[in-house]
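Intended use. Records like the one below are meant for learning the mapping from a protein sequence to its folded structure. Do not use them to infer anything beyond what is encoded.
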Amino acid sequence: MRNKNGFSLIELLIVIAIILIIAAIAIPNLLRARISANEASAAASIQTIKTSEVAYSTAYPSVGYAATLGNLGGAAIPCIATVAAACLVDNVLANAIAAPGKSGYIFSAVGIANGPTNSAYVVGAIPVTFGGTGIHLFCAADDGLLHSSPVAGAMPVTVAACEAFPPAQ
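Structure written out for the chain above:
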């Protein structure tokens, strides 16, 4: 009788089929976990920008809130705070205004002028790829609430557009 060494083709195909079934179950869960992590990061970044907007308006009362997200960042190290670069958020977040963004989201901060100063602001975050990097839009205005919407759309740039979204849960 001959001594058998190794595995037959059928045995190898069965093992490969089992691995593919396990991968088909695990990959969607990993993608959902990644989306959830991106959304948590976006919500935390919105909170950081909101806090920075208040600090900016306190530091520069003649300007009010920052006109753009870039005004909250700072280009040089060590950062020297000015009206144009207040050194309140890191450069990754301050420059996340276009793809690839930060953690799968693109951010915006807009100061809204009412008279000589920016008396209101709107902060927004949209996924780089809706359904791929995130499934919610986020925004906040000077009302202090975080709003979100599961509907794909444009970045809210007015207080009314942001407040039309329901508060985030």
